[in-house]
């Protein structure tokens, strides 16, 4: 059996060692990303069930049904109260303008919390201190506010399922990218160690992974405004697969052929 007597280039051993350490680092990053993806993905089913429960909720028609539902949040409660204060304010680091309303106590939770109306909406022009309003609540969520025949849906309703789907898709794809990078580093380390030339392969730069990071999140935001629960989650996965994968593969093929 013949021995390989080719001389290794100067510094090849150090480069091989660095590449092996790089392979280990990428592999560990892939494991961490996979664990995070699994953790976020495990929340999807619960969030979808929570959202479907909200979408299927019906108004509490009778006092007895309302008392029974208060412990389970099975129905939509209507709380009638008087406005204590209603005024424009600044909120957040960007000092965005909001229209905050507080109700006069005693008010049952969650209607006792301040809520924000659209500062440019019709209701913000109608609601004044002393006005009588109807606040619809579900479990610990403020659903909508009504006054003088004008109603406005409040932010913060259960609709996070598709966003969890998008985050999971980002994590899964980035896990694949990390493992591919680990394989590439290990391949380069073997080439350096044996003195073989290192043939360049396509890398994964920011421009190539941007589409698979942005697409699932954008699709999730769009899907949760059009479809509900499992339909939105399935649409997110399908559209992401149809756009992100071909876009990434096209970038890789273009780079390989250039």
Summarize the helices and strands and which ones pair or pack:
Elements: H1 12-41, H2 44-55, E1 58-59, H3 63-70, E2 75-91, E3 96-103, E4 115-117, H4 122-126, E5 132-138, E6 141-147, E7 150-153, H5 161-194, H6 206-226, H7 229-257
Parallel strand pairs: 1-2
Antiparallel strand pairs: 2-3, 2-5, 3-4, 5-6, 6-7
Helix pairs in contact: 1-5, 2-5, 5-6, 5-7, 6-7
Supply database-style keywords:
about 55% helix; about 260 residues; alpha+beta; OB fold (Dihydrolipoamide Acetyltransferase, E2P); single chain; seven-stranded mixed β-sheet
Total E-strand runs: 7
Query: What is the number of independent domains?
Result: 2
H/E element order = HHEHEEEHEEEHHH
What general outline do the C-alpha atoms trace? Answer: elongated
Main sheet summary: 7 strands, mixed
Percent of residues in helices comes to 40-55%
Structural class: alpha+beta
The averaged pLDDT comes out at: 76
Distance between the termini: 40 Å
State Rg: 28 Å
Strand proportion, as a percent range, falls in: 15-25%
Low-confidence blocks of residues: 1-8
Total helical segments: 7
């Amino acid at each position: 059996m013949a021995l390989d007597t080719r001389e290794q280039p100067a510094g090849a051993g150090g480069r091989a060692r660095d590449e092996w350490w790089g392979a280990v680092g990428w592999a560990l990053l892939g494991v961490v990303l996979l664990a995070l993806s699994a953790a976020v993905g495990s929340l999807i089913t619960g969030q979808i069930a929570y959202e479907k429960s909200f979408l299927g909720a019906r108004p509490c028609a009778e006092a007895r049904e309302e008392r029974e539902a208060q412990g389970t949040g099975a129905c939509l409660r209507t709380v009638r109260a008087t406005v204590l204060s209603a005024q424009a304010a600044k909120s957040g680091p960007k000092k965005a303008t909001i229209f905050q309303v507080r109700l006069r106590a005693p008010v049952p939770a969650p209607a006792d919390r301040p809520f924000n109306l659209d500062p440019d909406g019709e209701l913000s022009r109608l609601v004044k201190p002393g006005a009588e309003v109807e606040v619809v609540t579900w479990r610990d969520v403020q659903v909508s506010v009504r006054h003088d025949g004008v109603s406005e849906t409040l932010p913060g309703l259960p609709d996070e399922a598709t966003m969890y789907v998008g985050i999971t898709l980002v994590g899964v794809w980035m896990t694949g990218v990390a493992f591919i990078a680990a394989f590439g580093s290990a391949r380069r380390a073997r080439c350096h160690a044996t003195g073989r030339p290192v043939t360049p392969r396509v890398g994964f730069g920011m421009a190539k992974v941007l589409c698979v990071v942005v697409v699932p999140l954008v699709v999730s935001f769009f899907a949760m405004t059009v479809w509900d629960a499992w339909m939105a989650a399935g649409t997110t996965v399908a559209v992401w697969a149809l756009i992100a994968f071909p876009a990434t593969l096209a970038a890789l093929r273009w780079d390989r052929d250039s």
